[in-house]
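Quick one:
INPUT:
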């Protein structure tokens, strides 16, 4: 497939897991991809593997909690690859714990990475898309933001905020022919999930059994949904939220 030939994409949190799978899928479809991550060495390795497959890819150091960093990253991508056509807001972080055990410092970190990071990247890149009159913005939320998730109160709040923000941004940018959509993963087999569930393997097994398809999601499952929203197939789709959870959550 080559639905994205000539397009330039930046994927945040692309050094591993879902972000890395998204970057690889967009590259497979013809896009030139910037893998942006605070873990720059890992992003470089991932970009190198994509280039080895014949696609164009660069690694970009990015701390999404900094607007200045987001602007600098966008500047570098546009210098090296060209104008950004696709922004995928994927970077995220959390630690499972009951809300009453959390602290304001923890809230600030979760909010800064999961929600403010999306604001920063959209602020850095959306005006460039507006000036050109086109673009695709896809943000990775979570089904935790749609239905809640025990032990993830602040994270779920951030992910719900991404949905509301994206729907509003979709309305504001529609006149500029910019599509803004959201993908909500369910439980997905990533290093982050395994770290979060360390010592709770029985809970993880029960979680997988509770999914109608009887398995955890794979990063490639999410990458396919993002590729749809990034492609011309979604040109008349905006302000939408797609759950990729094996049927775990079925909400209207």
């Amino acid at each position: 497939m080559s639905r994205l030939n000539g397009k330039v994409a930046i994927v945040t949190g692309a050094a591993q897991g879902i972000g890395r799978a998204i970057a690889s899928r967009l590259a497979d479809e013809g896009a030139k991809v910037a893998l942006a991550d605070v873990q720059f060495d890992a992003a470089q390795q991932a970009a190198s593997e994509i280039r080895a497959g014949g696609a164009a890819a660069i690694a970009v150091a990015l701390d999404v909690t900094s607007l200045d960093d987001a602007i600098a990253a966008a500047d570098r991508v546009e210098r090296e690859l060209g104008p950004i056509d696709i922004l995928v807001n994927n970077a995220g972080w959390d630690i499972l714990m009951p809300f009453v055990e959390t602290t304001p410092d923890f809230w600030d970190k979760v909010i800064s990475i999961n929600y403010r990071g999306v604001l920063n990247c959209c602020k850095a890149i959306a005006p460039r898309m507006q000036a050109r009159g086109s673009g695709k913005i896809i943000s990775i939320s979570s089904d935790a933001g749609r239905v809640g998730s025990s032990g993830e109160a602040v994270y779920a709040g951030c992910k719900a905020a991404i949905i509301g923000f994206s729907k509003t941004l979709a309305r504001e940018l529609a006149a500029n022919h910019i599509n803004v959509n959201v993908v909500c993963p369910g439980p997905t087999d990533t290093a982050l999930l395994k770290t979060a569930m360390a010592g709770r393997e029985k809970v993880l097994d029960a979680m997988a059994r509770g999914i109608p398809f009887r398995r955890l999601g794979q990063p490639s499952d999410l990458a396919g949904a993002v590729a749809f929203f990034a492609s011309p197939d979604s040109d008349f789709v905006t302000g939408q939220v797609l759950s990729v959870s094996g049927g775990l959550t079925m909400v209207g």
